[in-house]
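User: Predict the complex with iron/sulfur cluster.
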Amino acid sequence: MQLTNEQLKDKIDELKKKLSVTVVAHFYQRDEVFEIGDITGDSLELATRTRDDDSEFVLFCGVGFMGQSVKVLSPHKRVVMPRIACCAMAKMIDGKAYDTAVKVLNDAGIENDNILPITYINSDAEVKARVGEMGGLVCTSSNAKKIITTALQEGKKILFVPDRCLGQNIANEMGLKSCVIGDGKDLNQSDIICYDGFCSVHQLFTVEDIEFYRKKYPDILIAVHPECDPAVCQASDFVGSTSQLIKYIADLDPEQKVAVGTEFNMVNRLREKNTYVLSSTKPECPTMNETTLLDVYNTLKAIDDGNPINEIQVDEKTQKWAKIALERMMAL
Ligand code: 13P
Ligand code: SF4
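Assistant: Here is the predicted structure with iron/sulfur cluster placed in the model:
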């Protein structure tokens, strides 16, 4: 017989009391999974708060690179995921593709000594390690501007991977020149050279969606995540990371209408009224949505049976350099 969500929640609670496990859930998780999280937040909050947690196991409800970041920062912890769900953007680059991108810069006359690589946290540990070994660091959408401001003080070209939108949006905000590898622009004329990766969920929001809402509700505000296309960000009233969007919307007058361009699950639980999803489609992140309460229960049960499943492993060298890249970010 299939268990209801309420029955599953009771069973999960029982196992959580018995075991040394912290359940961690990203804002984009389904509501019922998000609700059972001991630690919830955006990718930066999850990486930092789990580091200070002392349970033996971290059960991470999110996508692969996030669980990996916890393991990299706290190698002594056992990190398990109910689903090894992949972020589509993170999968657009691996170590080999990263090396090819560096070679494109070298071929344009930009030597490694003059490159400071920055990887968005939405990348695998292998890419973070490559970046760490080259003297670079990680950023998230919450701190990208700060990281880039500090990095520019070294007077080097920034190679920004994998999200071309975040890289270009920060460059636009800071009045810097940017290009995307392969777009035909002169790399030597750019302060920030972006890899050609993107988030397929955030590509769903368009300038036409913004025009539609502005026409329908002339006083509406438009708030979007910086993984959206630069044209969409430029046409919006506010651009911010997951946590920044939550704060921006919480501070609005309850009567103020706002249309939000980010993942559906999060937008849906932001505010009771006057909040719209900036799309005619349902912009769900398919892999974030894979994790169910039944998966969480099965993962806890496997720990209880002494046979944990879906445990994250990162080899020693990758762990060392990826940690350095993450810690450089945290130090700022
Ligand atoms: P945050 O860093 O804002 O949590 O975003 C992660 C993400 O995957 C956005 O699509
Ligand atoms: Fe990755 Fe986009 Fe999903 Fe975020 S919303 S986890 S960037 S695919």
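The pocket of 1,3-dihydroxyacetonephosphate (ligand 1) is lined by residues 42-43, 87, 122, 140-141, 199, 227, 241-242 (CB under 6 Å).
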